[in-house]
Amino acid sequence: MMQIGLIGIGAGAAAALLFASVASGSLLSTMLFWFSPLPLLIAALGRSHWAAMIGALGGAAALALTLGGFYFLVFLAVAGLPAWWLGYLTMLARPAAQGDTAGALEWYPAGRLVVWAALLGAGIIVVAIPNFGTDIESFHAALRTTVQRLFQTENEAGSANLDRLVDFTVTALPPSAAILATISNVLNLWLAARIVKFSGHLQRPWPDIAAMDFPKILALALGAAVVVSFLGGLIGIMAEVLSASLLIAYGVLGFAVLHAITRRLSSRSFVLAGTYAVVFVFGWPILALCLLGLAETAAGLRARAARKSGPPVRF
User: 15 in a domain, yes or no?
Assistant: First the structure.
């Protein structure tokens, strides 16, 4: 237990430093901020979810003492609790169904981990929305003030264009932040698992990510969120946030489908590398992967492709 506590304290200190780096305002510090859950996830997967919990509370307390009590809750909401919960679920297992190998374990599915990453990403932004206002007018006013400060410049020319940019950013910021939070959760979980696996301390077998799947009801939840987003008001904004996070989750599923259905192509490496590069550089092509993920849910593309080829490829 002492070792778990020490590991948790170390992970919490590293996570708190990454989290606090955003205060410098540089691009690199912003990137480091999104990796703040990584040390906690490494502690959860490599040792115990209790280590991640100790780290989350310890890191939050350290930030509260140095930067103010407000950061205690912010750190827990953005990095601490999501990392602990994802780490806990990743290492969750139960005895396999009867008829399987004796003593075998059934681990928490990779697809549901991605869904939780999306829900947590949306939850972070939804919890933050009331801090800007409790109605749509006050929310937009407070967010607009914040964005204007970020875009503030000594050059007075082009103020009309700047106003349009601010208006666009205010509209796009909540769903964009949810997308970033979801990507951060998925990427940090994958990196933590890879690091712990490389160290030889990952107790669960590496999942067949190309075969992961989502609950069918998730597509209905996405459709409902899209419909509610047209209602406007804070409820509509929260629905936009949830829609954006779930769409990114289906984008991840789309990548899994792409890995599975291209396994017999001679140009598979080129197709996969090109797809990742295009999505990374331009961003918007992820919508095609979202559609691919939704098509898999509706039509079972991998099952059809499997009838013409061998078992799915791991990646």
Answer: yes
Backbone angles phi, psi at 237, to 5 degrees: -65, -45
pLDDT at position 21 = 86
Is 70 buried (19+), middle (13-18) or exposed (0-12) by CB count in 10 A?
exposed
Segments forming the whole domain that contains residue 22: 1-91
pLDDT band at 195 (very low <50, low <70, confident <90, very high): very high
Total structural domains within the chain: 1
Read off the amino acid at residue 163: D
Q: How confident is the model at residue 99 (pLDDT cuts 50, 70, 90)?
A: low
Determine, yes or no, domain membership for 6.
yes
Q: Can you read off the two tokens belonging to residue 55?
A: 């780290």
> Which whole-number Å values give the CA distances from 180 to 88, 121, 144, 190, 239, in the listed order?
22, 8, 20, 15, 16
The mean of the pLDDT values for the chain is 88
- Say how many Å lie between the first and final Cα of the chain, rounded: 34
Which one, of 45, 43, 49, 47, lies nearest residue 12 by Cα?
Answer: 43
- Phi then psi for residue 106, to 5 deg, are -105, 115
Q: Is residue 18 part of a domain?
A: yes
Q: Which of 177, 163, 174 is nearest to 136 (CA)?
A: 174
Q: What is the pLDDT of residue 102?
A: 54
One-letter amino acid identity for 146?
Answer: T
Beta-bridged to residue 95, according to DSSP, are 105
What token pair was written down for 75? 């750190």
Q: Of 142, 144, 137, which is closest to residue 164 (Cα–Cα)?
A: 144
The answer to whether residue 192 sits within a structural domain is no
pTM of the model: 0.89
* Residue 218 amino acid letter: L
Read off the DSSP letter of residue 314.
P
Q: Note the pLDDT of residue 164.
A: 77
> How large is the average pLDDT for residues 158-179?
80
The answer to whether 106 and 96 are in contact (CB under 8 A) is yes
- Residues 46 and 125: their CA atoms lie apart, in Å, by 29
Number of CB atoms found within 10 A of residue 131's CB: 11
Query: What average pLDDT does range 205-230 have in this prediction?
Result: 93
